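Bug #77: duplicate submission created two jobs. Keeping one. Sequence:
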Amino acid sequence: MTQQDIVERLRANFGKALGEWHEIRSENEYQRRTGSYLEISDPSSLQEIAFFLRDEHDLDFNNLLLISSVDNGDGSLSLAYHLESTRKKHQIAFRITVLADNASVPTITPIWLHANWQEREAWDMIGIRFKGHPDHRRILLDEDYPGYPLRKDFQEPDFFHGMKVPNA
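Kept job's structure:
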């Protein structure tokens, strides 16, 4: 099944919740496969879409490869999800963009348990909350660390817990 087939299947079931399909046109198959992505315009539909991708027999997305996050520099944050079916041998990526102020999306840990760590990392580094997450704590930094280091407006503190923070 091609990525275009998967996108058409998603559109048939979740049309209004989906945005543009961004297809990388390249002679390099790897670049096409990993660089193309589908926008999800309604973040509240994330869990329903993820369950569909996992549970539909001909889709069978049994593996979450990666969740990455980015500060777009325009007051919005994005999450990119890369999925694969190890049995059907296909992959798909989708992206959700939310406003940086009070950024929140549903967790996908009920669908792919190993999303737990990746969602905690996105919370810790960029400040996106995952509604319904079973263990929503910072994973790399102290709970009281000020700010989110991967945001473009992040200002490293001069001191943390009374200790001088070294300048890079």
